[in-house]
């Protein structure tokens, strides 16, 4: 899987980097160790690391440092209520932590969910990582997230997935 993942990563980057903003690319931990950071790292690149729990976090730390040194930023994807994921974040020290929908679903209706989410955000702050809330689907969830200080989010409430070129066209005011 790592070799296929690395090949897909290379194919995405062959399309070039954006003029503004960031290019966020998902890659597994296994695929990441098969790539040369110096050849691909760029200040506009955010690597969304998936399946990082299947490798020992200390094994990845050195690999990630090479990518950071060459300008890339690191995000860990799909962080949910599993304490092992937060423990991995302590070792990996990502720039972004993407909070899975399982953490925020119902946070507008259940105080226990809101409290757990607030604690996960404290871990993000402690690590100096920006939190990105995934799967925002309801206005009440968005309000709670804003109240808790979350600045970044994605989900159907905020916009449906679309091709990069379409998003660029809309942002340029052409549609």
From TrEMBL:
Q: Where is the signal peptide?
A: none
Q: Give residue ranges for domain EAL.
A: 1-175
What would you give as a GO molecular function for this chain, any one?
A: cyclic-guanylate-specific phosphodiesterase activity
User: Which CDD domains does this entry report, sorted A to Z?
Assistant: EAL (cd01948)
What Pfam families does the entry give? EAL (PF00563)
Q: Does the keyword Transcription apply?
A: no
Query: Which top EC class applies here?
Result: hydrolase
What InterPro entries does this protein map onto?
Cyclic-di-GMP_PDE-like, EAL_dom, EAL_sf
User: What keywords appear on the UniProt entry?
Assistant: Hydrolase
Record carries keyword Lipid biosynthesis? no
Return the EC number.
Answer: 3.1.4.52
What's the protein name? Answer: Cyclic di-GMP phosphodiesterase CdpA
Q: Which organism is it from?
A: Neomoorella thermoacetica (Clostridium thermoaceticum)
């Amino acid at each position: 899987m790592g070799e296929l993942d690395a090949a897909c990563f290379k194919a995405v980057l062959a399309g070039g980097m954006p003029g503004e903003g960031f290019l966020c690319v998902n890659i597994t931990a296994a695929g990441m160790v098969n790539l040369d950071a110096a050849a691909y790292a760029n200040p506009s690149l955010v690597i969304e690391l998936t399946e990082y729990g299947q490798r020992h976090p200390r094994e990845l730390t050195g690999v990630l440092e090479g990518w950071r040194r060459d300008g890339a930023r690191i995000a860990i994807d799909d962080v949910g209520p599993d304490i092992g994921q937060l423990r991995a974040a302590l070792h990996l020290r990502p720039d972004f932590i993407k909070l899975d929908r399982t953490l925020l679903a119902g946070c507008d209706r259940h105080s226990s969910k809101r409290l757990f989410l607030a604690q996960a955000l404290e871990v993000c702050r402690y690590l100096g990582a920006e939190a990105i809330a995934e799967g925002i689907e309801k206005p009440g969830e968005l309000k709670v997230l804003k109240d808790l200080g979350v600045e970044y989010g994605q989900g159907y409430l905020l916009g449906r997935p679309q091709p990069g070129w379409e998003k660029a066209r809309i942002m340029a005011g052409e549609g």
